[in-house]
Structure formats: C-alpha cells, structure tokens
Write a structure and sequence with these properties.
This protein is 9% helix and 37% strand. By secondary structure, it is mostly beta strands.
C-alpha cells in the first residue's frame, strides 16, 4: 500500500467517523465576525462641496446591518449573509402565537444572497443561533411575528438570487441577548458568521 492510498483511506476513516459522531470531530471550524467592506458612494460632482472624507475602515466586529461572506461545505457554495434588523421583544403574528410563560420572542431579519456558483438549498433557521451575555445559546423556534414574513423553511436560491425573512427565537425574559450566529448547511458548514447585538 503506497503513501497516497494510506492518506486517502485515513481521510475516508475520519470522514466516516465524523458522520457517525458529529460532535466528536474538530474539522477546523471557524467563527468569523469580520464584515465585508461596504461599497463607497462616489463623491458628488456638484460645485462648491468639500471633497469626500477618506473611506472609513471596515468595522472589526459585525453588527446589525453588516454583511458577512460565508462558505458552505460544497465547492461553489457561498452566501453573503446580512443581519438586517432585530426586534426584541417581538410580538406574535396573531393572538395564538405567544411565547411560553417567563419567555419572550426575539426576531432577527436575515438577507441571504447566493454569491457562489452552486445552487443554495437549505432551511436557514436550522443554522441560526442566538446567545445571551451569560453564554446561553438558543435555537430558533417556529412562529410568525408581527414584524414581517418569516424566512422560508425551504430556501432554494440559484446563483445571484436572494431571500429575506425573519427567524424567531424564544428566550427567557431576563436574558440579555448579545450575539446572533448563522452557518450554512443547517449549521454544519465549517464557517459560522457572528454579529454583535449589544
């Protein structure tokens, strides 16, 4: 058995082991909170105006309104993900949609733009998490809020296409939410985006 065959078998063994126990494998996952640089607007050509100030540096940490470029597990799988708005507390979409006693809804509006060469197909809420200042993490929950339409549970985007919608979380009333995270491939992609909320 030559060296390259041993390497291929070893890699196959690791992949098989990871498939059996996802939590036991560290595949080099990263959390990125560096936003993409925003496009600068051209200076006005009108007379008598001062020249535009130098373009400000990209913020170090992504916040609401910022976009993070993420990669998925497959070649050509890429998204630009923007946290557009946050509503805290969020109101249920109807009189029947209410949080459990002692809890509240938090809504996060995401915009997804397929910047890759492959089609994107996923349930975005599976890859979204909210965390509070104490480090407690919360998964998304099903439910519509009055702020606007929910993100579809089955998003399919061809290259260049986009999706917009709210993902809802249910958190304890006393929790002070501090970050929201988003990962492709239902959160199993190696790269996760993180936005600071407070």
């Amino acid at each position: 058995m030559n060296h390259s065959t041993r390497v291929r078998l070893s890699a196959a063994t690791v992949i098989a082991a990871c498939a059996l126990s996802l939590t036991a494998c560290n595949t080099g996952s990263t959390v990125t909170d560096k936003p993409k640089a925003k496009a600068s607007t051209p200076a006005s050509k009108g007379g008598g105006q001062k020249p535009a100030a130098k373009k400000s540096a990209t913020p170090d940490i992504a916040k609401v309104g910022d976009t993070i470029a993420l990669k998925g597990m497959d070649d050509g799988s890429k998204l630009d993900v923007t946290v557009v708005k946050v509503v805290d507390p969020a109101k249920g979409g109807d009189e029947f949609t209410t949080p459990a006693p002692g809890k509240r809804f938090v809504g996060v509006q995401f915009r997804l733009v397929n910047t890759g060469s492959a089609a994107y197909s996923d349930s975005p809420s599976n890859g979204a998490k909210l965390a509070d200042k104490d480090g407690q993490q919360f998964e998304s929950t099903f439910g519509d809020i009055s702020a606007g339409p929910s993100m579809s549970s089955d998003v399919k985007l061809k290259p260049g296409a986009k999706a917009l919608g709210w993902i809802v979380f249910e958190v304890p009333k006393a929790s002070k939410v501090s970050i929201v995270q988003f990962g492709m491939d239902s959160g199993f992609a190696d790269q996760t985006g993180e936005w600071k909320l407070s």
